[in-house]
Amino acid sequence: MGDHVHVRLSQGLSVSAEGELIEHSRCRCGATFAKVFDAEGGNPEAPAPS
Fold first, then answer.
1. Please, are residues 21 and 40 in contact by the beta-carbon 8 Å criterion?
2. Cα(43)–Cα(40) distance, rounded to whole angstroms?
3. In sequence order, what are the beta bridge partners of 31?
4. pLDDT tens per residue across span 1-50
5. Cα(26)–Cα(32) distance, rounded to whole angstroms?
């Protein structure tokens, strides 16, 4: 049997008291993840070239 690979399933977004965007996700194994995006940190990302 191979190693487990986490598959992150989106659970929603929230905003912290400091104004940061937080992306919540989880894996089917029960592991949870939170990715924080700083709204004050620089320029927005440009769209990918087509």
1. no
2. 9
3. none
4. 578 899 999 999 999 888 888 999 999 999 999 999 877 665 556 555 65
5. 4
Structure tokens at 45: 């990302």
End-to-end CA distance of the chain: 39
Q: Which residues of 2-13 are buried (b: 16+ CB within 10 A; e: fewer)?
A: eeeeeeeeeeee
Phi, psi of 26 (to 5 degrees): -150, 160
Full-model pTM: 0.66
CA distances from 19 to 4, 26, 42 (A): 34, 22, 14
